Task: structure prediction
Amino acid sequence: MTIEERLAEVRDRITEATQDAGREPGSVQLVAVSKTFEAAAIRPVIQQGQRIFGENRVQEAESKWPELKAETDGLELHLIGPLQSNKAANAVALFDVIETVDREKIARVLSEEMLKQGRSLRLYIQVNTGLEPQKAGIDPKETRTFVDFCRQDLGHTIEGLMCIPPAEENPGPHFALLAKLVQDCGLSKLSMGMSGDYETAIAFGATSVRVGSAIFGQR
Result:
């Protein structure tokens, strides 16, 4: 299958899963995860009308996205990998949405950089639903307090929550937990679900799914 065919299949499956969940058509956004792929592989996806993309690393994104953004209006770039404070200035300059805010230090640095650069990015709080020590994300029990801190103390626009369930576990309970936390925090957006489980995520209320290999192929 070509990239164009794989993209069409993913879009069809998102539409079907949305219908099966009894949700409004178009209520789930596709974030095409282009990490490790060069601009030449991304352009065909842009040509098929995809406008929202996700990257894991700031430095890699800087090598291709300024050029791609200059070529096509309306592209929206999401940072979906961990952000180090020394890369915050570069991230604020390039990305439109950061989905991996997970600690006070990075929230403060982002606030300072957005003020300095005159940019207002939309943010997601990453929640470590599986409490995995090796994985980024805030403890579910601390989510509401952290969201309130980011909004009230720092003035951030917190759009929603994001999670990456443990690879070896059933993702359903993790998606259900994130959906409950979103309600508790008074938020509306849920970034959850990847190539192997995005249809399950949609059933649990995902408003955006992050799909890479099902579109671009194996890395």
